[in-house]
Design brief:
Blueprint (H helix, E strand, L loop, with lengths): L1 E3 L2 E15 L2 E7 L11 E6 L11 E5 L8 E7 L4 H8 L5 E8 L11 E6 L4 H12 L7 E7 L8 H10 L3 E7 L11 E2 L4 H8 L6 E6 L1 H13 L7 E5 L4
Parallel strand pairs: 8-9, 8-12, 9-10, 10-11, 12-13
Antiparallel strand pairs: 1-2, 2-3, 2-7, 3-6, 4-5, 4-7
């Protein structure tokens, strides 16, 4: 590992890839023994001498979806039709990429106040890392309620895993909602987009919460407006928008 500027830069080999939802894939890279990060942080990945490229270039930023206690560096992404994503999907296992980071400061607060996570699609990825590390490290110190929006159950990466974590920790509640459920996979949970009435149904009697919004920029902006209109203090809203969704 070498250091440049104030963050680590190193090469890591692709060791595995796996579909974790429809058109959503996890990529796992070898993790250097001396590299550390906090759950919720992100990294930049650069392809080295890729067989194709495009105007978006060879570098992308990704939240780390693995927890620090896991033996690999994992990222999870939608499979958009770009040169970068095509190369990621087809390059041989063992191919090295350049990783820079970690960056970012998305983390659960220290104050003993409930946390409400409003997210959609791959916006769940940093919270997979955060929740897995916290629960396996002794448990959440206060209630955490995760509202997780997708079009259909088949689109919902890590939903079963997050639900399993909720069964292990009474402080974690998961409220998945589907905007376009279909008969191919019956759905009996919430439907529609995350809105004020949905929050009221599940947060009734829960006060003093800090809100975390992750997902595509339009979703994050809309949720922030909804919370402010509902009287939530802007200082109690933390956001992270995912571009290049």
């Amino acid at each position: 590992m070498t250091a440049a500027a104030a963050w680590p830069i190193f090469e890591a080999a692709l060791v595995d890839r796996e579909l974790v939802a429809e058109r959503t894939m996890a990529f796992r890279f070898a993790k250097p023994a001396d590299w550390t990060y906090r759950p919720g942080q992100f990294i930049d990945i650069t392809l080295l001498d890729p067989p194709e490229t495009d105007a978006e270039g060879n570098t992308r930023g990704f939240s780390v979806s693995s927890a620090p206690s896991e033996p690999v560096i994992a990222i999870t992404t939608r499979l958009r039709d770009t040169a970068f994503k095509r190369v990621l999907q087809t390059m041989p296992l063992g191919t090295a990429v350049r990783i820079e980071g970690p960056f970012g400061d998305l983390r659960l607060h220290h104050a003993h106040r409930p946390a409400v996570v409003l997210t959609g699609g791959i916006g769940i990825t940093p919270f997979r890392s955060i929740l897995l590390e916290a629960i396996h490290g002794g448990g959440l110190p206060y209630p955490v309620i995760v509202f997780y929006a997708n079009r259909r159950p088949t689109d919902a990466a890590y939903l079963d895993e997050i639900r399993a974590l909720a069964s292990q920790d009474p402080n974690l509640t998961v409220v998945p909602t589907m905007s376009r459920p279909d008969s191919a996979e019956p759905w009996e949970g919430e439907t529609g987009h995350i809105d004020a009435s949905m929050l009221q149904r599940h947060l009734d009697g829960l006060s003093g919460s800090i809100y975390y919004l992750t997902g595509p920029p339009g979703m994050v902006s809309g949720l922030r407006t909804m919370l402010v209109d509902a009287g939530v203090d802007e200082d109690d809203i933390r956001t992270e928008a995912f571009t290049g969704y």
